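User: Could you check the structure of this?
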Amino acid sequence: MKRWIDRWNAYWFPTTSTMPLAICRILMVAAQLYWRITSMGDQYNLAAKNSAFIDPQLLIRAVSAVVPRSVLFTPSGLHVLYWITLLAGVLALVGLFTRVSLFVFALANWIFVAHLYSYADFHHPEAVFSIFLMLLAFAPSGDRLSVDALLRRGKSGAAGGTATAGESDMAMWPLKTAHALMALTYFSTGLTKMVFGGLAWMNGYTLQGYLLADGLRRNLPLGLWVAQHHTLSVLLSIGTVVFELFFFVSLFWRRGAPFFLLGALCFQIGLLLTAGHKFYPHMFVLLLLLLFIEPEWWRAPLRKYLRVPLTWAGRQEQAQQPL
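Assistant: Sure, the predicted structure tokens are below.
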């Protein structure tokens, strides 16, 4: 039992640099700030045109039990929440009061997402990104590249101490959790196709129908071209189901994980170009996982050809053990 517990801890909690986590914090907060700034029109419009929720999400029901809908879920109330979100996001971006600001920023964005889907139009592209963003608040995301780190370093220097080494056994679990959530997302999607569509989903005609409808509605030349080739549609249908059902293998196969993640990123880009599905949050999470879950796939060539010294990536490779 102890051996399995040790392997479990080695998988989820290897001692490694907090630099990847800090980079994830900066990139994710910056991306979410941009998305929030550019998407508030829909929030205001829904609040102004609806006097009640059609299908309030669980988080909205919980918030409404404390703050009445007439107070918060109005254009003026949402505008106040927007400025709170913006302030928390800027603080999280620079790493000041990092844990608190990240928590407030993530929670406020959860409320906005839940509000958007409380009017009987429910989707899911923000789910993994939003959860990942919240997880950063419970990890040492502000240990590097932050105002908090500078302040700690200044206090340590004034006291005659030494700066922290910038390593933690809590630095990898948010990335690992996001990886597991992506695997669960793909597996549930593939399983749904098999349960409700069966082998008929892979006959090519189903995919052709979807691509034709999306291509015409969204003016997507690539999607219309693929829809005209039945054999290609069959191969893509089979490949999609196999990929979605077996993406979870990347959780345990360390050397193969970058290939799965790169394939997933290309898969999402393909969906965007052929069907117009804008899963930008998924793409963002996949890109971060591709860079930081197993960084040796890109760091090794740099060390070999550019003579980059062994840094945090190499240390992580030595510390991490397979489950």
